[in-house]
Every structure is written in structure tokens, then in C-alpha cells.
């Protein structure tokens, strides 16, 4: 244990090593009565974002599941479609460990013998150790394949399961589990994400029970259960894994993704009002469900701006400016939104003042000083000369703006 954390200190102090590699070592388990190899991968931003906490992903069968999960998450990080997570992969591929670790009783289906010790090792030793030494959010995910996937479902038998999300890849279900897991999912009151899958080339005895469990879970109608089942065509027991992992992660973290064209058109633009409230609620869910307190993305600000203009709800720019002032206080974003409100309402004098104030602030995204000064100059030309009669402002029809694309900014790419 001491050796592990000594190496972790070195790991965290080396930016180049941190950016490129994970660390592999052993953890001494009193429950198992042995040392167990684990691999820990910390997020790219871990060393520089000292206040951020990260969801925890525990991988059973870490020997071969680490790479496909790591690859999918890395790709998702780049496009800001998936959050950064702490990955802890448990080695189980030596001397038949995965079979012994997953041992369950033939009558009750509960962990037994070494399976019971391994069950306690994860909940009472591994997770507390990771929580103590790293900045983990309260949101935890567990994943496994066949025998380990079936075993991990046993955590759902607890009244308060230690995991929030389950990725069950072609599970080999212990006795009675196809009836018991649906019962448990129906009874659990906390929010649960549950993903499981099979394939037409999967093992027949496993496939039939997986399908039977799916039929029972589909009968559950609860808002706190986020459920997805997939039956892959043309895939085998092993080849389904690289298909399932992205699907599972994108299901679990769907709320994390920036506002998409589909979300804009189907959920936001159709609202009669409350566009800024929608944005606030989106990020509140991120904090409450995933434990992630994030700065609102520029893409999402632009999407709400487009919805406000489309529906002529110009007064909402004031609330949007308040959010911008909170998340990007040194930039021109808040003043730009106020200028938009005044301009759309026909109050060009105030719009000019807001554009000029924005000109003095830092540029952000595609908002530039040239844009602010040019817009202010254009509106100045519409203002009445001294002594000229002032006409009442007229709110003009505003063409619908396109939803901003979801391409990351250059700043994101360079991170």
C-alpha cells in the first residue's frame, strides 16, 4: 500500500508522465488476504483543476476492459461529449481469479467464499482508499463482462447500492438473478443507470436469461431508473464489447453533452418561455446526479441565445447575462447579451452603451472587440441627432438563428 501511494505522488508531480500514462501497482487487501494488482488512470485536467471532483469508474476484468473504456472516454473528452472520470481497473486474469472472485452460492445466488471477500474488498477497501487519496465525485460506475458482469449485479441487493450506474456486458447471471434484479430495480429509490446487452452470436444459455431479465425490467415505470438494453446483430460474445462500451457511456452521461441540434429543436425551441431556466436546470442535474460543478459551455450560451431570438423572448437576455457574468466575469459575454436585449427591443441608445462596455472586456469564443465596436457604430448611425424628434422603438422581426455547431473551441483542443 505504501509503495503504491509513494508512486502515485511521483506520478502526480510529473506533468508529462501524468498526461501520457496510467500507473499500475498492487494494493494489499486484508479482506482477500493477498495483494491485488490495480491500474489507476486520472483525468487529463486532474493536476491543474484542483477544485474539480470526478466520477469513479470501477472496472472488473481490468486486464482487458481498461483499454476499450480508456479509449472511448479519451475520445469523448476531446469532443467534450463525455466527462473526465477516474478509472480504477482491477486485475483478475491471473490463476483464474475472475472465477474465484465472482463465486456465488448455487441456491441463493449471493456472493460466497472468495466471492464474498472480493465483494467486501471493493466496497470496504478499494473504494474508500480511492476516495481518501483522490478527488472523487459521489457518482460511481461499475462494469464487467459475463461472469464479472453477473457478479457486480449483487451490489443491487443492498438497500443503498454503492454504485449509481451498472454496465453489464453479456452477463452470466447467478441463479435467480433474472427475476431478482428487476425486483430490486423497482424497489430502489435512488437514481440508477442500468445498461446490459447481448448479441445474436452470444452463448445461448446466457442470452435467453439476459432477454428474460430485459422483459421484466421493461415493465418498470420509474423516473429514477435510466435503463437501456441492446441486442447486437452480427456480433459474438466478445466482439459485442467495443460496440457496447460507447453506447453505455453515452447513455449514462447523456445529460453531460453540450446542447445538440436535436435537443435544441425538440426540447428548447418549442418552449413558450423559460429558456434560461432550462439551461440552469441542465447544469443543476449535472451537479446533483454526477457530482460535477461545471462552467456553462459557450456552445450552450449560444443555443439559449438562439432560442431567445427565435421566440422573441428578449427579456430573458437579462437573466442570461447574469449567468454569463457569474461564469465568465472578465469577458464581454454578459454585456453582449444585454446589448442584444436592448437592440432587439429597439432601444439602440442603451444597446450602443452595452456594446461599448463589452468592447472594454476580454474577447471570448467568436465575440471580438471588432464585432462590438462595429455593431456600436452601426447603431450610432440610427440614433437621432441633437434636437431631432425621437420616435418610439419598434421591435422588428428577427430571422431565426441557426443552432451553434458542437465543434470544440481551439482552447478546448489545445488542452
Automatic annotation (TrEMBL):
Keywords per UniProt: Hydrolase, Signal
Signal peptide: 1-19
Pfam families cross-referenced by the UniProt entry: Esterase
Keyword Signal: yes
Superkingdom to which the source organism belongs: Bacteria
Residues annotated as transmembrane: none
GO MF, any single term: hydrolase activity
Start-end of Acidic residues biased regions: 393-404
Chain intervals for the UniProt region annotation (Disordered): 382-415
Cell inner membrane as UniProt keyword: no
SUPFAM superfamilies in UniProt: alpha/beta-Hydrolases
Protein name: Alpha/beta hydrolase
Amino acid at each position: 500500500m505504501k509503495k503504491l501511494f509513494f508512486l502515485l505522488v511521483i506520478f502526480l508531480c510529473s506533468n508529462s508522465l501524468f498526461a501520457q500514462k496510467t500507473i499500475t501497482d498492487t494494493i494489499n487487501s486484508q479482506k482477500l488476504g493477498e495483494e491485488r494488482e490495480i491500474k489507476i488512470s486520472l483525468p487529463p485536467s486532474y493536476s491543474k483543476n484542483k477544485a474539480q471532483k470526478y466520477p469513479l469508474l470501477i472496472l472488473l476484468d481490468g486486464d482487458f476492459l481498461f483499454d476499450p473504456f480508456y479509449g472511448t472516454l479519451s475520445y469523448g473528452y476531446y469532443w467534450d461529449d463525455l466527462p473526465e472520470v477516474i478509472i480504477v481497473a482491477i486485475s483478475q486474469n491471473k490463476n483464474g481469479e475472475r472465477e474465484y472472485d465472482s463465486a456465488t452460492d448455487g441456491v441463493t445466488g449471493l456472493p460466497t467464499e472468495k466471492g464474498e471477500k472480493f465483494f467486501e474488498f471493493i466496497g470496504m477497501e478499494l473504494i474508500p482508499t480511492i476516495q481518501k487519496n483522490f478527488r472523487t465525485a459521489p457518482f460511481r460506475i461499475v462494469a464487467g463482462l459475463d461472469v464479472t458482469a453477473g457478479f457486480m449485479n449483487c451490489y443491487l441487493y443492498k438497500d443503498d447500492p454503492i454504485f449509481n450506474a451498472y454496465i453489464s456486458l453479456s452477463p452470466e447471471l447467478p441463479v435467480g438473478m433474472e427475476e431478482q434484479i428487476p425486483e430490486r430495480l423497482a424497489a430502489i429509490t435512488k437514481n440508477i443507470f442500468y445498461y446490459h446487452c447481448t448479441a445474436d452470436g452470444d452463448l445461448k444459455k446466457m442470452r435467453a436469461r439476459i432477454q428474460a431479465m430485459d422483459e421484466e425490467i421493461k415493465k418498470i415505470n420509474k423516473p429514477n431508473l435510466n435503463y437501456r438494453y441492446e441486442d447486437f446483430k452480427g456480433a459474438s460474445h466478445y466482439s459485442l464489447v467495443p460496440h457496447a462500451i460507447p453506447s453505455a457511456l453515452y447513455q449514462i452521461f447523456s445529460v453531460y453533452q453540450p446542447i445538440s441540434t436535436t435537443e435544441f429543436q425538440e426540447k428548447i425551441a418549442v418552449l413558450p418561455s423559460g429558456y434560461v431556466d432550462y439551461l440552469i436546470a441542465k447544469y443543476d442535474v449535472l451537479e446533483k446526479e454526477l457530482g460535477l460543478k461545471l462552467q456553462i459551455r459557450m456552445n450552450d450560451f449560444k443555443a439559449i441565445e438562439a432560442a431567445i431570438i427565435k421566440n422573441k423572448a428578449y427579456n430573458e437576455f437579462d437573466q442570461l447575462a447574469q449567468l454569463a457574468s457569474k461564469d465568465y466575469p472578465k469577458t464581454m459575454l454578459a454585456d453582449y447579451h444585454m446589448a442584444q436585449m436592448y437592440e432587439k427591443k429597439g432601444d439602440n441608445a442603451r444597446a450602443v452603451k452595452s456594446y461599448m462596455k463589452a468592447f472594454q472586456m476580454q474577447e471570448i469564443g467568436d465575440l471580438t472587440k471588432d464585432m462590438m465596436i462595429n455593431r456600436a457604430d452601426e447603431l450610432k448611425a440610427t440614433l437621432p441627432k441633437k434636437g431631432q424628434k425621437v420616435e418610439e422603438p419598434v421591435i422588428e422581426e428577427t430571422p431565426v438563428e441557426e443552432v451553434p455547431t458542437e465543434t470544440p473551441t481551439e482552447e478546448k483542443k489545445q488542452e
